[in-house]
Hints:
This protein is of the alpha+beta class. The chain has two domains: 3-232, Rossmann fold; 239-357, CATH 2.40.50.140. Helices cover 23% and strands 35% of the residues. The chain is built from eight helices and 20 strands. It has helices at 41-49, 91-101, 106-119, 135-147, 165-182, 193-199, 217-222, 227-232, and strands at residues 3-12, 15-25, 30-34, 56-61, 64-65, 76-79, 153-157, 185-190, 202-207, 210-215, 239-248, 251-256, 259-262, 278-283, 288-289, 300-312, 316-323, 326-333, 343-349, 354-357. The chain has a six-stranded mixed beta sheet, sandwiched between helices. It has a five-stranded antiparallel beta sheet with strand order 13-12-11-14-20, with no helix packed on it. Helix 2 (91-101) packs parallel to helix 4 (135-147). The longest helix has 18 residues, at 165-182. 35% of the residues are buried.
Amino acid sequence: MSLKLTNIKKMFxxxxxxxxxxxxxxxxxxxxxxxxxxxxxxxLLNCIAGLEKTTSGTVEIMGRDVTDINPSDRNIxxxxxxxxxxxxxxxxxxxxxxxxxAGMPKKERSQAVGKVAxxxxxxxxxxxxxxxLSGGQRQRVAIGRALVRNPDIFLLDEPMSNLDAQLRxxxxxxxxxxxxxxxxxxxxxxxxxxxxxxxxxxxxVIDQGRIQQFGTPYDIFHKPNNKFVAEFIGVNxxxxxxxxxxxxxxxPCLVIGSHKxxxxxxxxxxxxxxxxxxxxxxxxxxNIYRLKERLEGQEYFTGELEVISSELTGSDVQxxxxxxxxxxxxxxxxxxxxxxxxxILVYLDLRNISLFNTQTGQRF
Length: 364
């Protein structure tokens, strides 16, 4: 294992901010710690780095227990949100300063810095000072300073939060390429779902100091463990509808008002609901279609639904629809923008739905 956390607990005074965190990742994984502000993700990263001492539990890196070992002896490298570059040093010295402090000879140090700078495409910036660099260039220098140490694990604390949207997209692509070239373990803290879904091999969704779900981006998106994860993940907020679960001739079915369909293809994570039990049906806006051909042989609800409102977002239009006196959000191509007050025929694709317990919020 590249990283193994076992029952990590962290308290500040009487306040418990991390609750029994356990997870494992393999060498070469990209683990994203995803959550909103104050959820505990940066505290967890600091515990892995050794910048915060855990109250209890163990941290293992490459099979070695480093729980009580100083950060400098964990063979990790960290890239901070603020980049934390030395303003009076050149780019070359910023990258190689850790090697200089470790006593590496100047010639070897220069070779190491040059190799890293070439990899990050900043070899023409080595004589500049941080004040002469753009935000993206400063980020590359911060990454280069971490990279030159050849660590077992790279820790990145919201490294792209200070960049504009276009530059973030570019840096995501560059970080993916860098990870592919190095094949090292990356641990990235972010609140940005797109960063998480596009970069991670494993995602830990954190809320109030607890891991709500740990798994692949695909599973996190398509099979959320609970309503919190379902609501948190996804650019377009998931719809939640009150529905009744029924067993008709031993076949699981879902009923919403006058609409009924079987659930033969649904994979229950836990014990199925009881016959007649009310459940929350989770359905993403992108799973509502206007073309039946996309649903050939699949389970779906269909009907003519009234358009309550619509909002143009560019290539798409967000449309609110009345479905059995419940409001649902859908997204269509803006070339087919419907008028408010009219009824449109839609198909609700039930292949990727989620069913949740109305009391606990847990997935069925």
